[in-house]
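Example 3.
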Amino acid sequence: MSDYLLIQALNGLVIGVIYAVIAAGLTVIFSILKIVNFAHGEVYMMGGYFAYFAIALAGLPPLAAVLVAMATAFLLSVAVERTLLTPLYSPTTERKGDYGILITFGISIFLRNIALIIYGPYPLRPPSFWPGVLVIGGLTMTWDRVFAAGAGIAMLVGLLWFMNRTIWGEALNAVSQSRESAAIVGINPQRFYMLAFGLGGALAGGAGALVGPIYSLSPSMGLLPDTQAFAIVILGGMGSVSGSIIAGLLIGLSESMFVAVFPDPSRSLTYAQAFSLLVLMVVLLVRPTGLFGRVHTAME
Amino acid sequence: MRASQIAVFVVLGALVLAFPLLVNAYWLTVAILALFYAIVAASWALLAGYAGQFSFGHMAFVSLGAYTSGLLVMSFGVPIPLGMAAGVVLCAVVGAAIGYTCLRMRGPYLALFTVAFSEVLRIVIVSENEVTGGSGGLEVTPLFHTRSDAPYYYVGLVLLGVSLGLMVWLERSRWGLFFRAIRENEDAAAAAGVRVLRFRVLVFAITSSFAGLAGGFFGHYIGILTPDIGSVDQMGLVVAMAVIGGAESLYAATVGALLCEALVEALRSYEQWRLVIFGALLLLTIRFARNGLLALAYQAVRQRGLRGLVSRKAGS
């Protein structure tokens, strides 16, 4: 029994890393563009399929496939941002918040349905990144999960390095604090909106690529991680990347523990889906700024 | 001009009333579903377009109204109209509760909270399959036992007429003004003496009860309820209908829903492509014509005059 709980906890942490990657992307987009991206889960879904095709059609090795998925998701996001999100920056647009909600909601519907046509409704299972099982003592875990966790941690470390140690990361931070002041010191906000939306998309796409071999791919796979990512972003504090990472691990772990200890096994899986939603609702009610929220990144 | 306007209305009214005689059973079904979506889209327009409360949980209230009525009728033998009324009352109460809980939330926070509420309700319905029938669906007694669906059409028509009439009356009253003041700027509205708290709760309760009414009607027409009725995809469909028509006008949202449902069915031979076409249309509308396509068309007609439009077309 305790072995079972331990394995559940480890699996929860692996999924938590994936959640953290998705949520960190959502946070980057939120803190720069000041919108909640309802299409984030669909970019994650697209990333999963991009990696699948990179492996199945082009015969790329796993790591390269993940990188290709991230690059394609980046390009997709930039294209979406350039064509559909530019009114967000225009002074003539009324009620930009409403526009942001509606347009990203519309993008999510569009992407989900076009995926249904291109990829078909049946779940696809990409080949394993790394076949086999890791056994330590009485504990077993597939190498796919180990690989996903490792790659996810690498992405998060890379993101933190980029945000805190590079000039572009500092420019992003500046734009997130004040668009006007950033423009005064010579930062072109337009370019950084593009970069932020692309970067967020790349993280979502990378997470989708990592999840492929663990679960399977389907056009509606983005719905659930989307709401989970919202729960994480709000729990971690809107706009705080490190907050999102901590909250991601926390949610992954507690969700998996919830499944393990829920008394009725036939319902535990469906109610596990509701778990993060309830967390989201409670946090919104009790502490809307989250655990590590920064005041200046609150919604306008 | 006046006489010709009256003539147009008389002809239109006659067409609407005689509709079940003019079309086959398939298009009659489409028309009844269109009436259902019209009530939902119009009440969402009142909530989001007028009062600025972007709730993505509106279909959850449709689902709540439908399941309440269905379960009361099936388990306790309550008469159908009473069951539907109970659904409406429950939706008003839960709607008020949601409105009250969300008082501190604005914009995307509210959207997130309502999406979460809607999904939790759907998951509960799927999971508690002993009561609700789960994903397999809940069989519900139909409202009429006639061969033709025509009675449903007239009931739907009356429900839409009454709902729309009430909503338009509300929108033109002082309350409608308060709703729009809250949408434009809550703080300024409060400073001007609008009781923001009371009216945000009220608009949630009112629009949710219309959604519950539509849900009850839908359930007792379709005869089988599945949790999918409250899904995010269904919500997307309603949002698309209202926005394509024009979410800032009750009439535009209603006509948008009627036309969109007809369009969805007319494009049936394109199968899955129709939702993509629909999604693209939604994106284009939001991006380039935020007041909706109908408002755009109406403006064009009013500015140039119907005749001018026709002659321009003939000339080009």
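The first helix of chain A runs from residue 2 to 33. DSSP finds eleven helices and two strands in chain A.
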